[in-house]
Amino acid sequence: MTSLHPHPDRLLPADPAVRAVARRLYDEVASAPILSPHGHVDARMLLDDEPFDDAANLLVTPDHYVTRLLHAHGVTLDRLGLRRDGGPADPREVWRTFCAHWDAFLATPVRFWLETQLHDLFEVDVQPSTETADAIFDQLADRLARPAYRPRALFERFGIEVLATTDDPADDLSAHRALAADPSFRGRVVPTFRPDRYLDPAAPGWANGLDRLAASADVDAGTYAGLLDALRARRAAFAAAGGTATDTGVPDAGCEPLDAADAERIHREGLAGTVSAADAVAYRRDLLFRLAEMSADDGLVMQLHAGVIRNHHRPTLASYGPDTGHDLPDVGGYTRPLRPILERFGTSETFRIVLFTTDESLFSREIGPLAGFYPSVFAGAPWWFLDSPAAIARYRAAVTDSAGVGKTSGFIDDTRAFCSIPARHDMSRRADAAWLARLVTTHQLSEDEAAGIARRLVDEIPRSAFRLG
């Protein structure tokens, strides 16, 4: 039976002199409040404040970082709680499967997050394995039954100041409003406007989605102009509910605006089910431009994720639905395709765009240089396959050379796994302390300057980049 005691200096440099500096820098920010400006936790979970069910449904099934890697090692998603038939899975069996494959996470950032959660939050002191699975499951069940482990209590324990969710424009945002009006809840939970499902008129369910959006906005979306009006109305509702940002994921960053007559024609063909593939792409690129136009008007920060193939394995999508671990990187770019938006809004005082990528070559080749010229452009933190200590260090070096630290976004956890939020932010803070310590010990920064940057990275920078106030 192997003990579980994460080392206090994990992720800090091996060289004793550099490590000593990194420790001091990490201590500056270790307990700082968490600003989480991009994530996928459900606001209603905090509103209802119901006890979590069990270890499997808390730590395994909802976390596609966990399920995708186990799936890669031959574990079917059914065994991890994602059921083809929609029926319930046995949580103890799911947990046993997870523990039996613990070594699949060796040397991955997922292992760091899981160890931190198990040890620091649930007081587990043995590593998961076939032999320890049941005992750990029972220990977590005991903790989850306690009031201190309900969602709101954990929110306070985690030190979360701001938590942004990701929401469809048609969502009624009632949970956000109720939390904001509840004097017993001291946190801040804000919605993020995610319009992806309305961008592709060739996508299944697009017309039905327009109906739902129209009902929510009380605006007829049967025309292209009506769709734009409906999106504007819902953006205003998101802002009224505390939202400060939008989030858009597209296959590419093309954003050429269409003539209004062409856009109306394609919209009609989309409703009729006769739109061509080429016209659907042109329509999606036009709407990306229009969304930037709206951000320049209303000041909502535009987050853009381009160059990802969503739901790569169609049989898995058909059986288990989206967000099940098979969104995969694609070749993409920003400098050329994003030019129409940046020529129009790149120097606007109201427009702000945060660029994310899963292709880290873009950090030094495109995103850093763009952020290093355009006041509106910010370099989004490493995301999806890149939110690891090694990639964070490469990101810092690549982006800082051309844009400095002030044009970065601050860390984002991008998670559906609520209990992993503090572990993910802790990883980022340690990685940044290690990076800054090397700059101090190579005499590129004073330690006071590095400490100031460490503090800015967890507070001022994300607060400013996402206009959190």
Automatic annotation (TrEMBL):
<dbReference type="InterPro" id="IPR003766">
    <property type="entry name" value="Uronate_isomerase"/>
</dbReference>
<dbReference type="InterPro" id="IPR032466">
    <property type="entry name" value="Metal_Hydrolase"/>
</dbReference>
<protein>
    <recommendedName>
        <fullName>Uronate isomerase</fullName>
        <ecNumber>5.3.1.12</ecNumber>
    </recommendedName>
</protein>
<dbReference type="GO" id="GO:0008880">
    <property type="term" value="F:glucuronate isomerase activity"/>
</dbReference>
<dbReference type="Pfam" id="PF02614">
    <property type="entry name" value="UxaC"/>
</dbReference>
<keyword id="KW-0413">Isomerase</keyword>
<comment type="pathway">
    <text>Carbohydrate metabolism; pentose and glucuronate interconversion.</text>
</comment>
<comment type="similarity">
    <text>Belongs to the metallo-dependent hydrolases superfamily. Uronate isomerase family.</text>
</comment>
